[in-house]
Amino acid sequence: MHIQFNWTRKILAAAAAGLLALSLAGAQAVNEEGKRKVKSGTAPIYPELARHMNIAGKVRIEVVIAPDGRVRSARAVGGHPLLVQACLAAVKDRKYEPAGEETTQVIEFEFKGQ
Length: 114
Hints:
Elements: H1 2-33, E1 38-40, H2 48-52, E2 57-65, E3 71-78, H3 81-92, E4 95-96, E5 103-111
Antiparallel strand pairs: 1-4, 2-3, 2-5
């Protein structure tokens, strides 16, 4: 009985390791192939209040893109709130190249003070 239990543990461990390796390989493929090119859209407008306050920096937006290239959703990942709103407005109007499935990518914008 003890020998059978050890073999069962080894088989389960090998199966779990195989599943983990497959899931990691799939995640890497998404990261490498996940960048879709913008077909149309505008750059964010530097908000006047942020310009007057000399607020500068980077804003990161996570975008979920539908298979047809439309932006399904967007959320701020980092950046000053005054700058984030301008980026969210610009990203929602973008169109991307079509793809076989929904993709998620993070876009970074940089605002430079005067």
